[in-house]
Amino acid sequence: MDEIKKINIEDKEYPDLLKKISSAPKILYYKGKLPEFSEKCIAIVGTRHPSPYGQQVALKISGELADAGLTIVSGMAPGIDTFAHSSCIEKRRRTIAVLGTGLDEESIYPHSNLDLSRKIVGFGGCLISELPPGTKGAKFTFPRRNRIISALSEGVIVIEAKEKSGSLITADNAKEQNKKLFAVPGQIYSSNSKGPNKLIKKGAILIEGAEDVIASL
Description:
Layout: E1 5-8, H1 16-19, E2 27-32, E3 41-46, H2 52-67, E4 71-74, H3 80-90, E5 95-98, H4 114-122, E6 126-129, H5 141-151, E7 155-159, H6 166-176, E8 180-184, H7 194-201, E9 205-206, H8 210-216
Parallel strand pairs: 3-4, 3-7, 4-5, 5-6, 7-8, 8-9
Antiparallel strand pairs: 1-2, 2-6
Helix pairs in contact: 2-3, 2-8, 5-6
């Protein structure tokens, strides 16, 4: 497994888009290959408990965007994040995971995604954290890392999220950072649709597929 590397905000390899936000971490830890200046990234986030519809949408959109040359950024959490990363891995495409824990294998959460984390690095992707190795996840570390997910990306796609959800924190970060915000609509009787449908009401771009994202970018 690749070693954990450390980079300072003053270093020229530090991701340029992340450097632009006021709350940029002074130090980043990473495994694999950091995003390059010219690289176009898009974030995909959503519930940890997706419906079959949400799973299907996450796999399809992330796969199509990866095929179009975009790098998918997510948080490697259970649910939508995992499906987004996995779709890239199936296509042997690069993807970036921003973790709310240290990057050592004992700390990675969820531990069921340990093999996924290895494959992300193995297929030319990257694991990123502002937390030093040995740091376990806590209630505040996962919402806090969401600002990094949105900062690294040209825009954020929300696929299934409850009305009060970590995904909506990422959406708020995206708005603050002047990123494009996309949402996949869902059926009105599903609690998982409350988040994206609310975002669409407030001006997020309604998308039905990868082509809508590409056209907007």
